[in-house]
Each structure stands twice: as C-alpha cells, then as structure tokens.
Amino acid sequence: MSNISASRSRYNSWGDRIFDTLNVIFMLCLVVVTLYPFLNMAAVSLNDANDAVRGGIHIWPRMFTWENYKFVFNEATIFHSMFVSASRAIVGTIVSVFCTAMLAYTLSRQEFVLRKFITITFILTMYISGGLIPGFLLIRDLNLLNTFAVYIIPGIISVFNMIVIRSFIEGLPEGILESARIDGAGEFATFIRIILPLTVPALATVSLFVAVGQWNSWFDVFLYNSSNINLSTLQYELMKILQTTNTASSSQSAADAFAGAMGGVTAVTPTSIRATMTIVASLPIILVYPFLQKYFVKGMTVGGVKG
Predict the structure, then answer these.
(1) What is the pLDDT of residue 3?
(2) What is the pLDDT of residues 177-202, one digit of tens each?
(3) Where in the numbering of this chain does the ABC transmembrane type-1 domain appear (predicted)?
(4) Start and end residues for every CATH 1.10.3720.10 domain found in the chain
(5) How remote is the C-alpha of 283 from its chain's centroid?
(6) pLDDT tens digits for range 54-76
(7) Is 47 in a helix, a strand, or coil?
(8) 47 phi and psi angles, rounded to 5 deg
(9) pLDDT top residue among 148 and 2
(10) If DSSP codes are grouped into helix, strand and coil, which group holds residue 151?
C-alpha cells in the first residue's frame, strides 16, 4: 500500500500535472494543424461554389451542396481513371511487395556469399540515378510505352522497403528456419510457408508505402502513357484539371471562360473543383489506413530489433 500511495503522490505532483497539461495541449494543437487543411478542403468541396469564392469557410460548409461532386462524377473519364488507379495500386502493391520480400529474404541469409556486395549495389541506386532521359529511353527500348506494365515493372523493387523487410526477417528466431529445413522444406517453401506469415506487420507497412505511391503517382502517366486515354489515372486527370483551374483563376474573367469551357456550367468554380478532386483522390487512402495502422507501427519498430 505504501508503494502505491507513493506512486500516486508522485503522479499527482504539480510537475506531473503541468507536464500532462502541456502534453495534451501540444497534441491537440498537432491534431488541429494536421486535420484542418483536409477538413477545410472538404468544407469547400461541399459548399456552394459561388459562395465559396467569398472565402471565410473553415471546417464547415456555409451553403451545403452536392453540385461539385455531381459535376466531377459526370466527367466521362473519372470512373475509368479511378479503375486504372485502383488496378495499378492493387496489382503494383502485390507484385512489388512479393518480389521485394523475396529479395529481402535472400539478402538476409548469412550463407549467401554475395549478400554484402548485392546489398551495397542496391543501396547505391538510392543515391545515384541514370537520369530522366536515359530512363525514358530504357522504357522505350523495353517496349513499355503505352502499356499498363510501365506502372508495375520499373518500380517493382524498392530498396528502402527491402531494408525494412530484411531487418524484420533478421529479427526472427533462426530456429524456426532450421526446423523447416530439417522437415525437408526448400528455400521457396520456407519463404512462402514460414517467412511470409511471420512478416505480416512488415509486409503491411511496406504495402501501405507502395499503395500510396502507386495511387498518388501521375508523372509516369505523363511521361509514358499520356497519349493513351485508356491508361490515364485519376491523379493524372486531377493534375490536368488543376492546371486548367490554375490557369483559369489567373485573371478575373477567366473563371467565366472556364465555366463556358465546361459546357456552360456556372454552378462550379475552379476553387470548388480543385477541392472536390482533392477529396476524391485522397479519400480511398484515408479509408484504408486505419485498417493497417497497427501493422504500420509494429512493422516500423519491431523490424529494427534483433533477437
């Protein structure tokens, strides 16, 4: 009882109370700073476009409307570009994580003679690049222009993700792998049946990295598939609309010209369309993240602890 009373008295001291109060205030400020831009963008997208031009909208729409979203989803290319973005995110994540995990497992084996040389070679690619033009020429020579594979193959291996997964694998008990070998399992069977199930936290963390990168990517579409509308992604369509809205908002009369270019629609403005497209593009990742959060934290911390 005396120990409990002493701990309570220490916890209830003025120093602890001041620290807890300041900590809560700091975290609340951090939450506000983090969430406010997104909430403000959502409020603008749900507000009447002409009213939003007046400004003064913070985290709640002043004149609620769905017109901005109706306009966006009436665009002919939106749903197809969303399908392409979702397809490249799913396929690219699965292929990249699986191949990166195989490489990480190989480089984690102490008996692999060339593990240090190959590891250094891969790490050098993080600091040295061939450049934009040689990269484009390589993609052209590989006949990947105007193909869906150009979204998957060039980024199939990520050195940073490989290091995360390899560190996690090296922290696993060696006895588990030895038991699998004694039972007659080969390297590939050990990787599929033992390594993959045990590295789910690291794989989930890496999957989130890859999925966000694939979903947000638009520059590779601009470089390699800009002439093929069937392979255009949501982010690329967003980029084009943002360019149009930025140009339209550069002069006082350009907003009317923008509305006329969009078929005479006057219920939307460049500001409202920009906000709406941003919410549409970011919402899927925001919805996925809570399901991977526990794996994300564990994968980033446990991977750095060696057993």
Answers:
(1) 54
(2) 788 788 777 888 888 888 888 888 88
(3) 82-289
(4) 78-224
(5) 11
(6) 777 888 888 888 888 887 787 77
(7) strand
(8) -100, 155
(9) 148
(10) helix
Its pTM stands at 0.75
Q: Which two tokens stand for residue 74?
A: 């009436």
Q: Please state the φ and ψ torsions of residue 219, each to the nearest 5 degrees.
A: -65, -35
Contacts by 11-16, CB closer than 8 A, 24 or more apart: none
Reading the block at residue 263, the tokens are 């078929």
User: In whole angstroms, what is the distance from residue 225 CA to residue 232 CA?
Assistant: 7
Distance, CA of 196 to CA of 209 (rounded, Å): 18
Kindly tell me if the per-residue pLDDT of 256 is higher than 80. no
Query: Which residue has better confidence, 177 or 262?
Result: 177
DSSP category for residue 150:
G
Structure tokens given for 118? 């190959």
**Own/partner pairs, 234-237, CB within 8 angstroms, 24+ separation:** 234/78, 234/81, 234/82, 234/84, 234/85, 234/280, 234/281, 235/85, 235/281, 236/81, 237/75, 237/77, 237/78, 237/81
For domain 78-224, give the CATH number: 1.10.3720.10
Burial of 155 (0-12, 13-18, 19+ CB in 10 A): middle
Q: What's the pLDDT tens digit per position in 238-248? A: 778 767 666 65
